[in-house]
Write a structure and sequence with these properties.
738 residues, five-stranded mixed sheet, 33 helices, 60% helix, globular, transmembrane, glycosyltransferase, membrane, manganese
């Protein structure tokens, strides 16, 4: 909640504004109107069916919370509920991490993992107040689904298996990242089968999840039949067939003699391989017609990190889809990066079904986080779980060493007198009876689990089992160092939460040399101007980054927004921004656009402006309209806006709308972001007119001039030519972007 304390209760980023707008519609009109909502304010003139194109989990969760609190006569607005949904579910995520880690290594490791997840910067970036995005509830659903899977695996309970399918359904409703679950769990099941760890509990944990989970997932409109038709789900079906073949083989083994069993296994394996081959052939036939072989663009980008940059520039243009740098790991998970390897080693002592799942979880999440910086969010819970296990095991060893050697500890006087602070190895027979009794307690508790066919943890033989007692001084110093490491982690997390992740992108701040705070509220200033000074039906063109905010805050119709479902429509806007002023006017006029909004940071040094994003507009536009060529905007392969810039760059619409009257700010036209003087300083606009520029020049709004102004001052044409031109206007001009 540091964001609310420092600024105000405000929604963050871009996507959360769309989610907030949808939640407002849901709370006002009800669930049925929400499913059937056709939004004509976005993607003009196409529109968008909201109910069938959004993951409804976040919206339905916040709408339910709002309805419940208002039924209790607690007068909270929809915006307040949306702002605080993420912090509430971050607490739930920590609780789920405790439950999951407890199932793997006990309550001590669970508490440590929960404490680490509550503070990890990577998760704080998506769980601060105002971060009303799908990941706010999806990370809780992800970890809780994994917990219920492990719980079912340890107990063999159909009750937990049913809860696991319901948790998976909530995850499907919340985020497209549910495909990570439906691929990671089959990988773990296949690993258990290959390593000879098949059991009835494994079957109960997996089979109901595939059947019930797939049926429930198909009920979500945005998923629908994709739950059985896309390649992201095929691995779960293939493993589903394999586990049934293995289960049949184990069943036959129990009822037949060894000789007959060999014959039956040969038959079962042969039939099973035939069925698998048939299914694989059918799947290949189904997906062969698709150019992407049934995979979505984002999934192919995860499997091949170069795919998006080669074929789908709209995906590569998103900053969240870029690979992370090494410093981002230390920024987002800090000391956990060093503790994870120790946690992996601890999971091998001993290796169980649950600990092997955690190892598989961390390995896959590390890979995916290396492909997309956005998936650092998936890595964070895994890193916290492994780090919690490592710290818990380390504290167990160190505190046990201190307890055995400190004099005056009850039950340990003989050890205190014999050790004298030296490092020794104590055999299991030399362990005090109190310690043996303590070790026998969990064995007694496990008797009930044995009756439920719960897997017994393998107990090492006496020759392998050794209790390492470290020197007293070394143990004390090591404990202090671990406490100091945790203190540094807490300090870093608090700093990251307060400074790096609490600032809303819609309200920017900077500090002057004397320590003063400057607030840049240009975005809300521009949207407020649009709301109060334009007609309700006016269309606003901008790059897709600002579509959600324009619709939610200014209540104006936009051509494109952050949903990016129609690449051709986005390419049309990119082509207009990359074209000369006259051609751009024709494109926008044909789309009934009245205002054009650009974001410019050259005055205040705001780096995420449209000039820095311009090359992506060129690439996306050129991918659909071949006459837009990226080399035309580069000088010797370099992107420049100074005197060495190409004529195509200096005359395109984006350059003109950004730098119009810019020289009046300082007399030189020095761009503080690009750190150079612009190449073309004095020019006039003929087809657009400036109607509003915010206080710090961060947002500039232009209006398309009416068509009659274009022929002002020209010589009069003959009557026949005027009639021909009027007929041409009636019939309509040729497509201006072909």
């Amino acid at each position: 909640v540091l964001q609310v304390i420092k600024y105000e209760s405000v929604i963050h980023e871009f996507d959360p504004y769309f989610n907030y707008r949808v939640t407002q519609f849901l709370s006002k009109n009800g669930i049925y109107d929400f499913w059937n909502w056709f939004d004509d304010r976005t993607w003009y003139p196409l529109g968008r069916v909201i109910g069938g194109t959004v993951y409804p989990g976040l919206t339905l969760t916040a709408g339910t919370i709002w309805k419940v609190v208002n039924s209790l006569n607690i007068p909270l607005s929809v915006e307040t509920v949306c702002v605080f949904t993420a912090p509430i579910f971050s607490a739930f995520a920590s609780w789920a991490a405790y439950l999951l880690t407890k199932e793997v290594k006990g309550p001590g490791a669970g508490l440590t993992a929960a404490a680490l997840l509550a503070m990890v910067p990577s998760y704080i970036s998506r769980s601060v107040a105002g971060s009303y995005d799908n990941e706010a509830v999806a990370i809780f659903a992800l970890v809780f689904t994994f917990y219920l899977y492990i719980k079912t695996l340890n107990t063999g309970s159909l009750f937990y298996a049913t809860l696991n399918a319901l948790a998976y359904f909530y995850m499907v409703c919340s985020w497209g990242g549910y495909t990570f679950i439906i691929n990671l769990i089959p990988m773990h099941v296949l690993l258990c089968i290959v390593t000879g760890r098949y059991s009835s509990r494994l079957y109960i944990a997996y089979a109901p999840l595939v059947v019930l989970g797939t049926l429930l997932a198909s009920l979500v409109p945005v998923v629908g039949f994709n739950a059985v038709l896309t390649s992201e789900h095929f691995a779960s079906f293939l493993v589903f067939i394999i586990i049934h073949v293995v289960a049949l083989a184990y069943y036959i083994k129990g009822i037949l003699s060894p000789k007959m069993f060999k014959v039956a296994v040969t038959l079962v394996v042969s039939v099973g391989l035939a069925v698998c081959c048939a299914v694989i052939a059918i799947l290949i036939a189904v997906v062969a017609s698709s150019p992407t072989k049934g995979w979505s663009g984002r999934s192919l980008t995860l499997l091949d990190p170069t795919y998006a940059s080669k074929y789908i520039p709209i995906i590569a243009s998103v900053s969240e889809h870029q690979p992370p740098t090494w410093p981002s790991y230390f920024m987002d998970i800090n000391v956990l990066a060093f503790l994870v390897p120790a946690g992996i080693i601890a999971c091998f002592m001993p290796l169980t079904d649950s600990s092997s799942f955690v190892i598989l979880y961390i390995v896959t999440s590390v890979y995916f986080s290396g492909v997309m910086v956005r998936l650092m969010l998936v890595l964070a819970p895994a890193a916290c779980i492994l780090s919690g296990i490592a710290l818990s095991e380390a504290f167990n060893v160190l505190t046990r060493s201190i307890k055995f050697q400190l004099p005056g500890i009850a039950g340990n006087p003989s050890i205190a007198s014999e050790e004298n602070g030296s490092s020794t190895v104590v055999a299991p027979n030399d362990i005090p009876k109190t310690e043996e009794a303590a070790k026998e307690k969990p064995a007694k508790k496990n008797r009930k689990k044995e009756k439920e066919n719960v897997e017994k943890k393998p107990t090492p033989s006496k020759t392998e089992k050794r209790l390492l007692v470290l020197p007293l001084e070394a143990s004390v110093i090591a404990v202090l160092l671990l406490v100091l490491l945790g203190a540094f982690y807490v300090v870093h997390c608090v700093w990251a939460a307060a400074e790096a992740y609490s600032a809303p992108s819609i309200v920017l701040t900077s500090h002057s040399n004397d320590g003063g705070l400057h607030v840049f509220d240009d975005f809300r200033e521009a949207y407020s101007w649009l709301s109060h000074n334009t007609d309700v039906d006016d269309k606003v063109a901008s790059w897709w980054d600002y579509g959600y905010q324009t619709t939610a805050m200014a209540n104006r119709t936009v051509l494109v927004d952050n949903n990016t479902w129609n690449n051709t429509h986005i390419a049309t806007v990119g082509t207009a921004m990359s074209s000369p002023e006259k051609q751009a006017w024709e494109i926008f006029h044909s789309l009934d656009v009245k205002y054009v909004l650009v974001v410019f940071g050259g005055v205040v040094g705001y780096p995420s402006d449209d000039i820095n994003k311009f090359l992506w507009m060129v690439r996306i536009g050129g991918g659909v309209f071949p006459h837009i060529k990226e080399p035309d905007y580069l000088r010797d392969g370099q992107y420049r806006i100074d005197a060495q810039a190409t004529p195509t760059m200096l005359n395109c619409l984006m350059y003109k709308l950004s730098y119009f009257r810019f020289v009046e700010t300082d007399g030189k036209g020095f761009d503080r972001v690009r750190r150079t003087e612009i190449g073309k300083k004095h020019f006039k606009l003929t087809h657009f007119e400036e109607v509003f520029t915010t206080h710090h020049w961060m947002v500039r709004i232009y209006k398309l001039k009416p068509q009659r102004n274009r022929i002002r001052g020209k010589t009069k044409k003959s009557k026949s030519s005027r009639s021909v031109s009027s007929k041409r206007d009636v019939r309509g001009k040729r497509n201006p972007w072909h």
